[in-house]
Write a structure and sequence with these properties.
Distance between the termini of chain A: 79 Å
CATH architecture of the domain at 81-212 in chain A: Orthogonal Bundle
CATH topology of the domain at 81-212 in chain A: Cytochrome Bc1 Complex, Chain D, domain 2
Helix content of chain B: 40-55%
Shape of chain A: globular
Mean pLDDT of chain A: 93
Oligomer: heterodimer
Largest interface: A-B, 51 and 47 residues
Number of strands of chain A: 1
Number of helices of chain A: 9
């Protein structure tokens, strides 16, 4: 039988060897960020400052969700960032909204401009919206009948205010309601302007929109 | 094969009925791949790569036949399904394409830095792609089994995992935004879950691939480059640490997956 001393020594040696060979998780986190910073360069409108993470991006860069208090802080900050539409005008033109929803363009290094007018809203890449469009992605939930299912008969009616404001905030900064949402922050990151967001909101909530038939 | 013919074949195979499109897009593409089995244009790149491997080229007027891809100098068969791996001579973990460039530098006298700066689809980068296609084809039907015995290989896996989950850019995307779950799609395009073995001939086990939509042969470096473009990230350097690390992550996760590379894609 091995003496306890020998077993302990062997364990200590093994532990030391492991430490020497693989850095601690926090060190690996730092090394990975350094590796990323060293691996990318500016190209066109896509500059390396896009790799500077804010709190939410950093906290959601892991297969494990952030602790609840961190998630709450991200959500509260996101909600506070929402810019509400001028004059309380939420509703745009659903036809323009459909065009934006279809377009996946914008913000890549092959795009000439980062201006909202040159960007699409990318909706169908991840969501079912109008059922007539059969080429839709499944990363996000189906938005078919989005307004109808929520009982919106008139977007300007006070009874619809809660869902209208929720939808605006979700489009402006998706992290307001889910810290690690996969959805881009269309208003907050300057991807779409106020009128474009009104148009996308109309696609989802206007009772006349094909989405709500 | 003429691009027009290929597109016509794609349209015919995928089918045009809206009702059938959702269900049969993947089936249609599989059927289309089968139709082209005897004529995958990747074979042209494979043949070009084999000729380049044997041809005396570069300032040193030497072939690549002494290149060590991990299984000993000159051994091509079986090398692809064990890459990226650690190489003692460069003291780095290298993927197929960056390893080929190392060999072009040491054996043939090319400048590795110069080749890394050449845009995809031009000059020596076209030759690297053809060589990668040839090397991958020599392991067709074999199963991925990346070595993880060297500490640098395990280290790169850990870095690669973090690169995979790193969120940034104007869309807040990471690789995991699209490739972290089963059964997801962008539009009608199926997305492999790259956090595990996604199945035979899928994801890491499918590239290099000939892309019918643009008539180009793409190696893994260009595949990753275009992923990062669509992720709205800045431009990843050819053979950069992040791209090799994320390849280690995908390759190790794909353990046991059968390689069908070079494959054919829409």
């Amino acid at each position: 039988m091995k003496s306890p001393f020998l077993v302990v020594t062997a364990a200590a040696v093994w532990a030391l060897a492991s430490c020497a060979s693989m850095p601690a998780p926090a060190d690996l986190d730092r090394e990975a960020v350094a590796a990323i910073k060293a691996s990318f360069r500016d190209q066109g409108i896509a500059k390396v400052d896009r790799l500077n993470q804010d709190l939410g991006q950093q906290a959601c860069s892991s297969p494990t969700a952030p602790p609840p208090e961190v998630a709450k802080r991200i959500e509260a900050t996101a909600l506070a960032s929402v810019k509400w539409p001028a004059g309380g005008q939420y509703l745009g033109d659903w036809r323009q909204g459909e065009k934006l929803a279809q377009s996946g363009r914008g913000m890549t290094w092959t795009d000439a401009s980062a201006l909202p007018k040159d960007n699409g809203a990318n909706c169908y890449n991840c969501h079912q919206i109008d059922k007539k469009e059969i080429s839709f992605g499944t990363i996000g939930p189906s938005l078919w009948n989005y307004g109808r299912l929520r009982g919106v008969k008139d977007v300007t009616d006070p009874s619809a205010a809660a869902i209208v404001q929720y939808t605006w905030a979700k489009l402006w900064n998706s992290k307001a309601y889910a810290a690690c949402s996969n959805m881009p922050r269309f208003g907050h990151m300057g991807l779409l302007d106020e009128q474009q967001l009104r148009d996308v909101l109309a696609l989802l909530l206007d009772p006349k929109s094909p989405v709500n038939q | 094969m003429k691009p027009f013919f290929i597109l016509a074949a794609l349209a015919a195979a995928v089918g045009c009925g809206p009702a059938s499109a959702q269900k049969s897009a993947a089936d249609g593409i599989a059927e289309y791949r089968k139709m082209l089995e005897d004529g995958n244009p990747a074979e042209l790149f494979e043949a070009k790569g084999e000729a380049l491997w044997k041809q005396k080229r570069g300032p040193k007027n030497a072939s690549l036949e002494a290149c060590d891809l991990g299984k000993g100098p000159g051994v091509v068969k079986g090398a692809f399904v064990e890459l990226p791996r650690y190489f003692a001579d460069t003291n780095r973990v290298q993927d197929l394409e960056s390893r080929l460039v190392s060999c072009m530098a040491t054996l043939q006298g090319f400048s590795a830095d110069e080749i890394a700066k050449v845009p995809f689809g031009r000059g020596e980068q076209n030759n690297v792609t053809a060589l990668a296609t040839y090397v991958a084809a020599a392991s067709r039907g074999q199963r991925f089994n990346l070595p993880q015995s060297h500490v640098q290989e395990r280290h790169m896996y850990e870095i690669g995992k973090r690169v995979f989950y790193f969120r940034g850019g104007p869309y807040d995307f990471s690789c995991a935004s699209c490739h972290g779950d089963d059964g997801k799609r962008i539009r009608l395009q199926d997305l492999p879950n790259l956090t595990k073995n996604p199945g035979d001939g899928v994801g890491f086990a499918a590239w290099p691939a000939y892309r019918v939509s643009n008539g180009q042969m793409w190696g893994m470096q260009l595949r990753l480059n275009d992923c990062y473009r669509q992720q709205r990230f800045p431009y990843p350097g050819f053979g950069s640490e992040a791209t090799v690390a994320v390849s280690v992550f995908m390759g190790v996760n794909a353990k046991g997956a059968e390689s069908i590379a070079p494959s054919i894609k829409r």
